[in-house]
Structure formats: structure tokens, C-alpha cells
Amino acid sequence: MGVFQLFPMATILVSLHFQIIFYVSNIPLAFAQNENQFIYNGFLQAKLHLDGSAKITSNGLLLLTNTVNNSYPQVGHAFFQFPLKFNTTSSGLSPSLSFSTNFVFAIVPQVPNVGGHGMAFTISPSSNFTNVAGNQYLGLFNSSNEGLTSNHILAIELDTALNPEFGDIDRNHVGIDVNSLNSTDSASAMYFSNKEGKNISLELTSGNPTQLWIDYDEAEKLLSVTLAPNGIPKPNQPLMSKSIDLSQYLLESMYVGFSAATGTLIPSNHYVLGWSFNKSGQAQSLDVSKLPSLPRQRKAKEIPRLMIMVFLIAVMLLLITITGAAYIIRRRKYEETREDWEREYGPHRFIYKNLYKATKGFSDNELLGAGGFGKVYRGILPSSNVQIAVKRVSHNSKQGMKEFVAEIISMGRLRHRNLVQLLGYCRRRGELLLVYDYMSNGSLDKFLYSNEKPNLSWFQRFRIIKGVASGLLYLHEEWEQVVLHRDVKASNVLLDAELNGRLGDFGLARLYDHGTNPQTTHVVGTVGYLAPEIIRTRRATTCTDVFSFGAFMLEVACGRRPVGQQGLTEDIILVDWVFECWRRGAILDASDPRLEGNYVGEEMELVLKLGLLCSHSVPTARPNMRQVMQFLDGNANLPELPDGSTCFGTLNGNEEHDFLLPLPSSSGKGSASSLSSTDSILINGR
């Protein structure tokens, strides 16, 4: 009995022994597979990180977007589940950035040869793409982070839509993207035929499987991209070879995978049939015979004669309906949105028909520019032959509209020679139109930074600075209410025919506040002009306007933006640079070189020092606008600047202290202490 019991136990131990040996022997292989290379001839057993519309089909296809789901636009991502080591240094060697990959893809549009919008092989520091947009952004970026150096994204795009905003060469190209969809290099889709010795065009949206090879040589710093129909050996000549140093963009730990996006009207199926990747050498070749098959595309069936008749009758009925509706639509062409409470604002309300005709139907030929809130058109009122500027702002929310219109009418009573006059408004179908005086010379920033405009003399610049200061003083202290602009900068200063500076574009910050969740707190303004305390408190004051005006003064005097870029990663802060010039006793070195030294030294030094003083990191140490005007007019002496870099720009840590400069005394409701959130009108620039 004991021997009989021992025999099964021995068998179990032997079996367990072999299982342990088999498991241990396979650990190095699995580790190598995950760490350096992998190959998928189909994705049935693949462990990928999928999100959005991405999925693996029953026969092993990786489907990133599809035409079955009626929800558009679509975005789909698929990444290898583990991050790979890229920009690392080991044993004193150079960073190991070389890699090789190849994959077979197919783009099958719902409408033949019309894609939307494409896909991309992606190397990213994260596999989380929750805040990206579809359409032309390919599921990689959105309008706020597109082009930022902090993205650290390399993508090889297969773009099937023409997007002029990103400089696309056509609707059928391959591009190398670094942190942006403005490709550093791109080429129309084609491959080099080794047999014929010439390039042959490829249609990315043909629905046929196509293979792409991507190879990066760290030693030569060369990125090569090669394209060919599936089943054809790798061509001898690549489609593109770009000299690029990826160590500037890739981080130590990066994810590799795919991203795809569809348009709002024309969807596409984006497939990946197989994928091979190697971080330490040449990627293995895919086995074409093992790749899953694409679904059979449906062929158009012969339409019966009866269906043709039904179709023709339907078309005739549709034409009759359209003809009948055309008359009604024509009558409603100039229809406006009017409510009972607007009757009292009659004199300030423009007729939409007049604005439509004044701008020639809001023609692109009359377009003056576009900002964050809408487009601005030039127009001539047919009744008075007066030139105007019309801003079209989309605003569908009714929340706060009555209060906002009341503020527009109130601000229409503002009268100052250095403010752009707001003439009135019009509402139509969820759209708000604001009517302003027309400034023939456009915005100041175009004179400062564009070679197309003539250079402004120092006399003109100093007059503009004083004019804007006078306008701000009027807003802060001299009108019946305290008005905050919240976005003082060169692009919001418009020049009239005599090149006088006028601060413009009022009212849109309040509109922005009314159209959002009241529990949400927003920071309105532009980076480089925002006072450090507004980031912490989310509250604008006259002191924050003074800070923006200080940045504006330095901008005009130096001919530089408050935050400029040097190289690919380094930012230059204008206030820091001017402060350094002052500390070494050469503050005039900060003047705009386009002036060629033609300026009044005392005035230039005053503007630069006053710009620094207004940029003080402690709000109470800044002068108010009445004191600023006293300094600019020469009616008061500018105090000495504190010799400490932490006093200017953004505070670090808890460096805020009670440092007060001896400024000339002034009274009035423009002081920071007398401003309250209940008696202020918040006004934003464009």
C-alpha cells in the first residue's frame, strides 16, 4: 500500500521538475521579447494597450477606426503595453536611440479614394491620449498643445487629407512629425521599384495592404522611411531620409504604437495587419502568408429598374421641396435674434442686413484678422459711408446674455481718444456681432515684428506708450466705474491713420465668463503679460493691468515679445533680460536695434526702467496708472529700482514680501485697495 502511494507522488514531482525547467528556460526569451524587440504576424495573441475606437478583430486585424460606428470623428490608439528604453546611457556609451520597425497597414475609406484623416506610427512618452482631437490632429494633439516642445512626440504620418494650416503638400503623403503636425519633411506616397528603377505612385486610400519601414541610425543621426505595396521586398531607395538628432526630443522611457483619426463626414477603416519592432538591431521581416486577411469590400449590385424609377421620383420631389423652401430661406437670410428686453437698446443695435452688406457678405477679401474669439471684417455702412470693423463671435448660451449686452451698451459710452470706440452690437442665430471704429493701420504688433510694415520711430513709439497709458488711466480712475482690460498687449493696441495708439477689443472676457459653468474659474490673458498673483488668486485688479502695461512698454521699447524662444527649448524672458542690462549699467543696450540708436536717451531709459517697475512681482510695489502718467509726462521723478532679480516677473516659492517703493501719492478709485469685484466691469482683449 505504501509503495502504491509513493508511485503517483514520484510521477508528480518529475512532471513539476520539467515544468520548472521549461519555465526558467523561457524567461530570458520573454524578457528579450518585451525589452528589445517583438513581432506580430496578426494580433490575436498580442497584448496591446488600446483606447478610443481601436480593437482587435476576430481574425487578428488591428482596427484603429471603423466605418460601422456612426459616431464621428473617431480616434483610436494602440500601443505596445510596456515602455521601451530610448534615450539612456549605459557603460559610458552614447545614448542608444537607434531603432527599426516595419508594419503592414491598409486604409479602406467608406467613399473610394477619399480618406479621412489618416494614421501615424508614434513614439510618445505616454500611452494616454485622452485630451487629443480627431480630424486633422490625427489623435495626437489638440489646438492648445500642437507644436509645443514639451510634447516629446515623434510620428510618421500617413496623411490622407489636405490641411493647409499644417503646410500639407497634398492629400496623399507621408510626413515626419516632431511635436507638431507641421511636418519637418514630407513626400507624396510612392515607392522605388528595384525592377523598373524608378518611383511609382501609391494611393494610401486604395484599400490595399501596404508596408512601411522606419529605420533610425543614431551614429549617422539619419531617419529613413520606405514605402512599398505588401509582398514586394524592401526597395533599395527610401521614400525619405531626414537628418535629425532624436536625442533632443525623445525621453528615456517611450511608448511605441499607432494613432488614427477620421473626419466628421467621411470615415475610414484604418487597419494594421502585422508589426515588427527592434530596439537593438534590424526588425524581423513579417511573414506575409501569416497576416490576417482584410474583409471583402462590397461590390455595387446592379440596381433594378424599379429602384431607378423610385430614385428619379424621389429626386423630383426633393427638387420641388428645395424650390419651395428657397423662397422662405431667402426671406430669412437677414433674420435676427431679438428679445423684448432689447427694445431699450434700439439706438445701439445694428441691423444685420446693413452689416452684411457693409462687409460684402463677410467676404474673405474684407477679413482683417482672426483672434481667439472670432474673425474681424472691414466694412462700410451703406447709409453713412462710415468705415467700421465688425467682429463675429459665436455664443449660443443664453446665460448672462442680457447682462452682457447691458455692459456692451454701457461701454459704448466710454469716450477717450486712446480707446477704440465700441459702436454697438447685433445678435443673429447664436452669433454676436460687435461693431467698432475702423483703425486703418491695424495692430501695433505688426509694425513691431513684421517686415511688411514700416519701422516706427522712437517719437511715434513714445507717443503710443503715453496714449495707451492715458487710456488705461481713464478706464481705471476717470470713468464712472472701474474698468479692467485684462489683456493689455501690442496686438490689442490699434493704430489710427495718424499712428496714434488706441487700446481696443472690449467686452469679450465678460462674454467668456457668461457662456461657461459659473463654478469654473478661468485665467483670462496672455502668457508673458499675466501678473504672477493672478495665477494664484484667479482675480484681476488694476495692479494686474499695470503689470501687463509694464510688459507692453518693454515690448515696444525693445522690439521683442515678453517671452521669446532661443533655439528649440530655451525661452528668453524679456523682463529678466532688461533687468540684466540695467544691473550691468547698460540698460540702453536693450533698445530695439531697428531704431539704430535714433532715440532720446532719457526717454528710452525712463520707459525701460518704468517697464521694470510695473513688472514688480509684488502688486503693492507697482505704480498705479496716474503715477505712470506722471513719470511719462516728467511731472515726477522715477524712484530707484531694487537690486534684486526676484523682485521682477514671476515669484518663486514664498518670496513675496512687503516691499514698497516710495512712489508719488495719488488718490482716486483706481487704487488696488479700492477696487472690488462687484463694481468692476471685466473687459478682455482679442
UniProtKB/TrEMBL annotation:
Gene3D superfamilies linked: 2.60.120.200, Phosphorylase Kinase, domain 1 (3.30.200.20), Transferase(Phosphotransferase) domain 1 (1.10.510.10)
Name recorded for this polypeptide: Protein kinase domain-containing protein
Ranges for region Disordered: 662-686
Membrane topology classification: Single-pass type I membrane protein
Organism in which the protein naturally occurs: Quercus lobata
Domain of life: Eukaryota
Domain spans labelled Protein kinase: 362-632
Subcellular locations according to the entry: Cell membrane
Alphabetic keyword roster: ATP-binding, Cell membrane, Glycoprotein, Kinase, Lectin, Membrane, Nucleotide-binding, Receptor, Signal, Transferase, Transmembrane, Transmembrane helix
Main location: membrane
SUPFAM superfamilies named in the record: Concanavalin A-like lectins/glucanases, Protein kinase-like (PK-like)
One Gene Ontology cellular component annotation held by this UniProt entry: plasma membrane
Residues bound to ATP: 391
Transmembrane segments: 6-24, 306-329
SMART domains: S_TKc
Sequence ranges of Low complexity compositional bias: 662-677
